Amino acid sequence: MIDPKLLREQPDVIREALKRRHYTFDLETLLSLEKQRRELLAGIEMQRHLLKQESDEFAKQKSEAASSRPPLHLKERSKGIKRLEGQLKTFEERVERDLAYIPNIPHESVPVGDASANRVVQAWGEKPSHAFQPKTHLEIGQSLGLFDFERAAKVTGSHFPLFTGLGARLERALINWMLDVQTKEHGYTEISPPYLVNRASMFGTGQLPKFEEDMYRLKDDDLFLVPTAEVPLTNLHRDEILDETHLPLRYTGYTACFRREAGSYGKETKGLVRVHQFDKVELVKFTKPETSYEELERLVKDAETILQRLGLHYRVVCLSTGDLGFAAAKCYDLEAWAPGLGQFLEVSSCSNFEAFQARRANIRYRQAETRKVAHVHTLNGSGVALARTLICLLETHQRADGRVVIPEPLRPYVDGADLL
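Structure (tokenized):
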């Protein structure tokens, strides 16, 4: 959530941010509500002041008389204040509700424009060259028996994956290896979180209320299947005050991820490119504000390590204001090359949310010297997401005989096998 002070003191900052994002929002109505809220609050404070003066006067008179009942106007003023407080609560709820729909303020370094303004900041490796026409992951998977979409559709429905045999083994190997890299080499603490989260957790990371239709919800319990491990990992410290000396905190965790992907994201796509359930190793950080952008660059490097060791050609893209996620102040997408499909696929998004999520989830830290309390900055990135990484792996390392070379780091996790 944006800082409410901006709404009261610098609405032009919000107005300009919405313009840069190409985001439609009725800010003028919200500003009108906020003005009415402030005027109502001022009126209540005046009435409270008058009530105190009159009550003090009555108490003085009562002490001088044998018996005295509170005058009627005191009771009426007290009732009036309660009515006004009820109105104030309504205005506060409306302002808070509307604030929840305003996206984060983009960082000044974010390119301005729509998706065409996204900026490639670096690339790693070269596009793989095959002496034959590379197959798609769907063709490779079918010939090697790595997954079975027909039976997945029978069991659940379309756009759900079902990995079989060596495909399931490779998926598990990738997850275990990625967790080992992030914990043993990059200093992340591993968490195995629940796959169901409550409404407060979804609100805290910014999925709710705006994106509720894209989520899978258990109606009877008002719980949601996690769209990403970012949600439970970030909410580990909801409503807590952290010690500055413990920052930054770094967590990693694996979950299956569930996304309904309504609207344009629901287009029919064959194979693993767009599915409603996929596996992902997530990276989450809690940092001090002054170091959060340094930590963002490190977060990107931690995710890049995975792609480099898998031998995948990829690029790092700084997203523009019009393509930026709702809660992010700045985001880098890591896009790996899929030779069979002939396109780059997003396999990781690394974002700095600054204090946006921390305000929603009430995550703060106590400064060591001043002992003052301030909001932390939160960051997250995929380290990395499957199954698109698996697509790029299969299509990059395929051979003319139809088999696939297993990248060396994964071999210890598949009993030393070097080929699928």
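Residues 27-64 form the longest helix (38 residues). The radius of gyration is 27 Å.
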